[in-house]
Amino acid sequence: MMIKANVYSCLKIRFLYHRSFLSRPSFVQERDSWSLVDAYVSSLIASINSCVSIEQCRLLHCKVVKKNVSFRHGFIGDQLVGCYLRLGRDVCAGKLFDEMPERDLVSWNSLISGYSVKGYLGKCFEVLSRMMMRSEVGFRPNEVTFLSMISACVHKGSKEEGRCMHGLVMKFGVLEEVKVVNALINWYGKTGDLSSSCRLFEDLSVKNLVS
């Protein structure tokens, strides 16, 4: 006799299978190990974010390497790079960045942002140039990239570099991002080019209070 399965019976079978799978000793052990790793990484990230000395930063870096924690787990590699930059060790930050086996758009933007905060305009352009050389694998500058780059230009009051950023913003199709246009308006205003600043404002399709 052929038994016709209905939706309820199918769901019940799936539920029982799923429950038996989750209760297997091997899965429970693996799940618990994930929890332990996540808890350890969370603790490390909290320590990195509150780190106030280069000695402590190096100690945390050693723990990550010694425990064989992936730099991509919780973006811990990017957190360490940011910590080194925050403590003024840009050479250590750049070296760690280069040693990271996997770097994504967040990694590139983190390094550029760190250099931007320090006012290292030359290093920002150096990292951006390297990033754009890898655009074929998806590392294209985005809104976050350009906000950091324009901020560095404002910090240095650099006219030529700022105009270069304006051109790249247009090239990569980010001119529709209100925050980026506002940053450019601010940069043109800071350099005394009020006519360019006004033109950008008038061409802005969506204006907000900052504009």
UniProtKB/TrEMBL annotation:
Q: Which residues cross the membrane?
A: none
Q: Which InterPro entries match?
A: PPR_At4g14850-like_plant, PPR_rpt, TPR-like_helical_dom_sf
The UniProt entry annotates PPR repeats at 104-134
Going by the UniProt record, its keywords in alphabetical order are: Repeat
- Tell me if Repeat is a UniProt keyword of this record: yes
Family annotation (Gene3D superfamilies):
Tetratricopeptide repeat domain
The source's superkingdom equals: Eukaryota
According to UniProt, the name of this protein is: Pentatricopeptide repeat-containing protein At5g40410, mitochondrial-like
Q: Which organism is it from?
A: Camelina sativa
